[in-house]
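Lecture 7 notes: from sequence to structure.
We start with the chain below.
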Amino acid sequence: MDDPILTIDEREAINSGRWFSSLSPSLRHDILRCAYVKRFRDGTLICARGEPPEEWIACAKGAVRVSSTSITGKQITLDYVEPGIWFGDVAILDGDRRTHDAYAHGETTLLCVSKADFKKILGVHVEFSEAMLRLHARRIRQLYGLVEDLNTLPLRARLAKQLLHLVRSYGVTSLSDGSEIRIGLHLAQEELAQLLGASRQRVNQELKAMEREDVIRIEPGGLVVRERDALLRIAAPET
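Predicted structure tokens for the same chain:
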């Protein structure tokens, strides 16, 4: 499904990414000059745990589901890489193998840079090394934030924060009601539960409670946020 050219929307997703847009025009040019496009159908394996790293990757459309397998053989979803986010650099930098599986979630477009070109750019641009440090520092902050939330916030608040994140990344304003926002990324309740470290039953209970309160609406095709301000209040409970 390879296509050598990004669409206008895909290119905009890459260029508007918070980290990538902070780079100098010269560095962005050198990255894009050697990058190539790959397209994947829903559920296709992109890279597997244990494989040697061959590419540095950015999501341009859709999502990348990062997963692990438990000792019982159950696949567990850990994260979804959204458009504009780069990943796969850790294994290239430390010389080790991939630590997780990555699958396309929905029709997904990736922008890839080979390992050789990644290292070449790293050697040419001092700025790139500093930018990678900032990127990794941001990931560490996010990781600590997730651990803190897991240990200090009730499931209801953590669920609200996750829904707000999905609204920012995949929210589409309803044409029939401008106050409602549809989450474009479809996640099964089991997948949402895995992201939160909770059971599907508990997540279902919280979603139903939010629906009764008219904060969200559950539809066969996904979730609609009806009251974003209410969701914000749930995500930041008073202590």
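Points to note: The mean pLDDT is 93. The first strand starts at residue 36 and ends at 40.
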